[in-house]
Amino acid sequence: MEVIPMENYIQYRRDLHQIPEVARQEFKTSEYVGAHLAKLHCQVEKVCGTGYTAFFDNGAEDTIAFRGDMDALSIKEETGLAFASQNGCMHACGHDAHMAMMLALCDYLEENHKKYKFNVLVIFQPAEESIGGAKVICESGALDKHHVSKVFGLHVWPKLEKNAIGSRPGPMMAKTSEMTITVHGKSAHCARPDLGIDALTAASEIISRLYQVKKNEMAPDAEYLLHVGKMDAGDAMNIVCEKAVILGSVRAFSLDVFNFMVRRIHEIAADVDKEFGTKTEVHLTEGYPPVNNDPALYEDYKKAMEKAGITLLEAEKTMIAEDFSEYEARYPGVFGWLGLGDVPSLHNNKFDFDETVMATGIKAFVGLLDYFNEK
């Protein structure tokens, strides 16, 4: 049975698809969402500049939260859709669908929230793609003030079986950090290398030693990634290199493994400096924590999906990042993929999907509400 008319949330998605905006600039998107929420009988609060929370208050001590993200990407759309964006940005990661499903959930709660023995908080979160809007919202106290006990999120996912949901207990997505290592040497003519300090040679040594860490220091089953993708060095073929910059990424499912890698990066840089006479600066972005689904809550999630008649598949771990992890670092949570079937990949200028899949996402959210209401 359809809980919300499909044409409603398809229209929400198409409206939002035409006004994509990048992180922290979701002004028209915010206006659209805010105007819709203003029509409902819920407590609406502005968060993180352009985001919202919609609180459906039943006077309970316990609150279940659902999150949808809002921002788009700086990609020129080439889908050919009648409702394609024209402003050089694109909802190529499906956040238009996430918002549409959250608005549909709010529509459902407008009519049905009083039947639940807990409160419900619906989060419209900006800035997932860049600065981590989830952390800003969590640190604002927007969830604590409503005594959130658990939080759920879905993300559309190409190549996963259409209308299935993919998730797993425990680690699902990685803790990530972008790495910049700047090696400072001393310039000299190549005819007198004794007068210089070669930053290029030192940087090459750092890279070599970093890649030796897994081979010589990590357990065989340690799951992590240390990748060097770019190095900029030198000004001329006959000059001793004065400065080299190494760019890469560090990712791991375990914080212990991640922190070990960060420590070794700093130690290797310091050791090379002593040997080569260089001065090296290591900078790693804060990144997001790992997405780590609460195992006990995941068991309830499985039962809720089964009761709702939704296929739940065990997702593989992936080394990409998602700031839903900021919620899970503070509250029990489960994050899942909503299968789109064989469609173009995310962040692709031709990304699109069968909009009827959103019905499965809404069904999953309502299924969770019904399950915990009966538990």
Structural overview:
This protein has 375 residues and is an alpha/beta fold. The protein has two domains: 6-172 and 290-374, Aminopeptidase; 175-284, Alpha-Beta Plaits, CATH 3.30.70. 33% of the residues lie in helices and 26% in strands. The protein has nine helices and 16 strands. It has helices at 6-17, 27-38, 95-112, 133-139, 199-217, 255-276, 295-308, 325-328, 358-374; strands at residues 43-47, 51-56, 63-69, 119-125, 148-158, 165-167, 170-173, 175-184, 188-189, 224-233, 239-240, 243-252, 279-284, 291-293, 312-314, 333-341. The strands form four sheets. Strands 1-2-4-3-5-16-6-15 form an eight-stranded mixed beta sheet, sandwiched between helices. Strand 1 (43-47) and strand 2 (51-56) form a beta hairpin. Helix 5 runs antiparallel to helix 6. The longest helix has 22 residues, at 255-276. The two termini are 22 Å apart. The relative contact order is 0.18.
Task: For the structure shown, list the relevant keywords.
375 residues, alpha/beta, Aminopeptidase, Alpha-Beta Plaits, 2 domains, eight-stranded mixed beta sheet, four-stranded antiparallel beta sheet, 9 helices, 16 strands
